[in-house]
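Example record

One chain of 292 residues, shown exactly as stored in the release files.
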Amino acid sequence: MPEETVNKALMLLERVARALERQTNALRTEPPDWRASNAWIWQPGRQRLKPVRTTGALPLDMLVGLETQSGILLQNTRQFAEGYTANNALLWGARGMGKSSLIKAAHARVVKESRIPLVLVEIFREDLATLPDLLDLLREEDDKRFLLFCDDLSFDEQENSYKFLKVVLEGGIEARPANVLFYATSNRRHLMPRQMIENERATAIQPGESTEEKVSLSDRFGIWLGFYPCTQDEYLTMVENYASSLNIPLKDDRLREQALEWAATRGDRSGRVAWQFIQHLAGRYEIRIDGL
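Predicted structure tokens for this chain:
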């Protein structure tokens, strides 16, 4: 037998052995101690959930300019936590405008209100292929409700995992567990780069069908919430609200002046830039921010 063929066979056997070892370790893994936290990170390599000490969630009322989005997401999250039907949600749009912050804030608010434990579980985009393993784990915990969260969800031209995600969201032979809801953020409304959709349309035998397959991924989210770039006035309102909430002792005129200088150095205005400026001021005035 040629040496090259032998080497390939050995490599295949080694991969099989590693896969079997992971499955064996998974069977030995102790179930999570849910009392440790109400937020966790999925670690597929170790087939376990890692507790998160703090999510850094801001109070919902500190997220100014997002009243419409927060009202919709909070109601949807509350319905789910209380055992009623709710929709998967896609928060899409401009960078730094509070998409992830809103999910964490809504979760934190509902945790305080709900009688049923609502657990936030983050799964990274590159780990989406392991969703069945995670869902099998969560399905068994029918006394809890799980909010799956994937930040910065998008797919490039060479990726096919979007097809798997479509089945998980809706349409597979095995339904998504009733105690699991999926929230995602993305800079892209349809989760695909525009040129990818256009290329598929140009080269496909049935262009409409190929394009529809990709666009339909975002359609499986029952709720779409858009986030748009902020104006200078909206940016300053965010800064002023943060400063007021934290009792930062800086007069309004001086606060606005410094906030604009900060944004100019970044070349951007957004909720994230406003919060970064406030963290700078809080440190300068020796003001501690809970959870940070």
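Notes: Confidence is low (pLDDT under 50) at residues 200-205.
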